[in-house]
């Protein structure tokens, strides 16, 4: 029975990772999370504290913005954008 729960936990982690990749990915640093979401109808970049406070939308463009990555100092975010299409 213990093996079943161990495998179920790994399956859950794999599913969450696949969802994150499908939705444009997410990255955390120093208690902050940057992610992309279509919650407003288009892929945009957001940041939120790890305790789920202070949600901030960072991009507001009709283009697709995905794959945010924190700078090493945690002050900036680079991301992929299809703004030239």
What does this structure look like?
- There is one protein chain.
- With 85 residues, this protein is an alpha+beta fold.
- The protein contains one helix and six strands; from the N terminus they run αββββββ.
- The strands form two sheets. The chain has a four-stranded antiparallel β-sheet, with no helix packed on it. Strands 5-6 form a two-stranded antiparallel ribbon.
- β3 and β4 form a beta hairpin.
- The mean pLDDT is 79.
Based on DSSP secondary structure assignment, what is the total number of beta strands? 6
Strand content: 25-35%
Structural class from helices and strands? alpha+beta
Q: Helical residue percent?
A: 10-25%
Form type: globular
Weakly predicted, low-confidence segments:
none
End-to-end C-alpha gap: 52 Å
Order of neighbouring strands in the sheet with most strands: 1-2-3-4
Radius of gyration: 15 Å
Average pLDDT confidence is 79
How do the SSEs run, as a string of H and E? HEEEEEE
Helix count from the secondary structure assignment: 1
Largest sheet composition: 4 strands, antiparallel
Short overview:
The protein has 85 residues and is an alpha+beta fold.
